[in-house]
Amino acid sequence: QVQLVESGGGLVQPGGSLTVSCAASGFTFSSYAMSWYRQAPGQERELVAWITATGRSTNYVDSVKGRFTISRDNAKKAVYLQMNNLKSEDTAVYYCYCRLGFIDYWGQGTQVTVSS
Predict the structure, then answer these.
(1) pLDDT per residue over 31-85, tens digit each?
(2) Rounded to whole angstroms, how far apart are CA atoms 84 and 107?
(3) Helix %, strand %, coil % for the chain, to 5?
(4) Which of 9, 47, 96, 103 has a Cα-to-Cα distance from 21 of 20 to 30 A?
(5) Beta-carbon neighbour count of residue 114 at 10 Å?
């Protein structure tokens, strides 16, 4: 069965760094693009970063460009989001996502809280 499991969330001070991870299983991970989304309380879920199947190309929402880096390790079937210079507005539940055929798959999410 397809499964996405996020980890690595936590509490961090403004200006700090954190990396969240997503472990994938149940499908040919290396054949699919992967994405990170986030959702803050009362806000829409937004696409944060996206990476191609090979990991050669990435893109980001403007608000995180220059601060966040998405990467993947196809051998480990994992995708990562390195977050630097974190801001209060980055506080959200971060979700790993992929689309397989006609079906969208989401992880359970991991909470990232940026607060002093």
Answers:
(1) 999 999 999 999 999 999 999 999 999 999 999 999 999 999 999 999 999 999 9
(2) 22
(3) 10, 55, 40
(4) 103
(5) 19
